[in-house]
Amino acid sequence: MNKEDFLSSWKLVGRGYRYHENDSGVGSFTLPAFSEMPWLAHGFSARTGGISTGHLASLNLSFTREEEPRAVTMENYRIFCDAEGIPVESMVMDAYVHGTTVLRVDRNDRGKGYTFPPLPDCDGLVTNDPAVTLMTGHADCMAFYFADPHTKSIGLCHAGWRGAFDRIGREVVRKMLQEFGSDPADIVAGVGPSICGNCFEVDEALGRDFADAFPATDCLMPGKRPGKAYVDLWMIAVSQFMEAGVLPKHISLMGVCTVEDPRLYSYRGDNRQTGGMAAYLRILSPDV
Ligand SMILES: [Zn+2]
């Protein structure tokens, strides 16, 4: 793929999101292209409507925040699941380590990471089992959503800058090919709320690494401070989806920045004193 091809494809990528909130303030962000598929349910949690306090207020869904008892975070999950119609016992959680391991899970994995010991280290999950809800944890990191309407299989992953650099998005698509025989041309892909290109400031050297690894993109922008640069991770995401064979017209970005939107926690925006959000994706019925 050359620069010209990428930039013309980039224009075809969908942008936008919907947001809904219940009476208790429990909110969720969705991708219109995924909402259009009646066999699926998906979302991305907002930080409101939960029971956490202080800098974790209020719907913290990260179990790695030591300042909060696990029972409080578990209750937040129950609140979020109730609002979104997710059976609590159906959840299977990633055990993210900023790697590129993608695991196939099914009903035998239900509860892992919540009421049962976690899965082995993994940043991505795929399934074709309607009995499970895939869950991944996020603060500024991207959530990649994948759905194949043909084989009725799904994938979800956590993609921080390391995972995005190492092309975890391509790994999820590969796993769906391997496990379910998915044709990448059928796969619908999307990106949840995450740090945007105007906020993701990195050392210039790392910025150059991104530009070298994704030469067709315009992902690198000059920094406002010496020795710094900005990287557009949304372009990095789209680039690796297309490398994997996903069609530009089947890709969409919510375009919501976790640093800038007060409805969301942000690792960088809140100066590392923050909670975590969750993305979910589940098959409602493969027969719809
Ligand atoms: Zn931003």
Rounded mean pLDDT score: 97
Strand tally: 16
What count of domains describes the coordinates? 1
Specify the structural class. Answer: alpha+beta
Give the neighbour order of strands across the main sheet. Answer: 1-15-11-9-10-7-6
CATH names the topology as CNF1/YfiH-like putative cysteine hydrolases
List the topology elements.
Elements lengths: L2 H8 L3 E2 L2 E4 L5 E4 L1 H4 L4 E6 L24 H15 L6 E3 L8 E3 L19 E4 L5 E6 L3 E7 L4 E7 L1 H5 L2 H13 L7 E4 L9 E3 H10 L6 E3 L5 E4 L1 H11 L7 E3 L23 E7 L5
Parallel strand pairs: 1-15, 5-8, 6-7, 11-15
Antiparallel strand pairs: 2-3, 3-4, 4-16, 7-10, 8-16, 9-10, 9-11, 12-14, 13-14
Helix pairs in contact: 5-7
The chain binds zinc ion (ZN).
The site of zinc ion has 6 residues, from loops.
Describe the structure in your own words.
With about 290 residues, the protein is α+β, with helices and mostly antiparallel strands. It has a single domain (about 15-190, about 250-285), classed as CNF1/YfiH-like putative cysteine hydrolases (4-Layer Sandwich), CATH 3.60.140.10. It is about 25% helix and about 25% strand. It contains seven helices and 16 strands. It has helices at about 5-10, 30-35, 70-85, 160-165, 170-180, 205-215, 235-245, and strands at about 15, 20, 25-30, 40-45, 90-95, 100-105, 125, 135-140, 140-150, 155-160, 190, 200-205, 220, 230, 250-255, 275-285. Strands 1-15-11-9-10-7-6 form a seven-stranded mixed β-sheet. Strands 2-3-4-16-8-5 form a six-stranded mixed β-sheet. It has a three-stranded antiparallel β-sheet with strand order 12-14-13, covered by helices on one side. A hairpin with a 5-residue loop joins strand 2 (about 20) and strand 3. It is globular. The protein starts with a helix and ends in a 5-residue tail after the last strand. About 50% of the residues are buried. The mean pLDDT is about 95. Bound molecules: zinc ion. Zinc ion (ZN) binds near residues 196, 199, 257, 259 and 260.
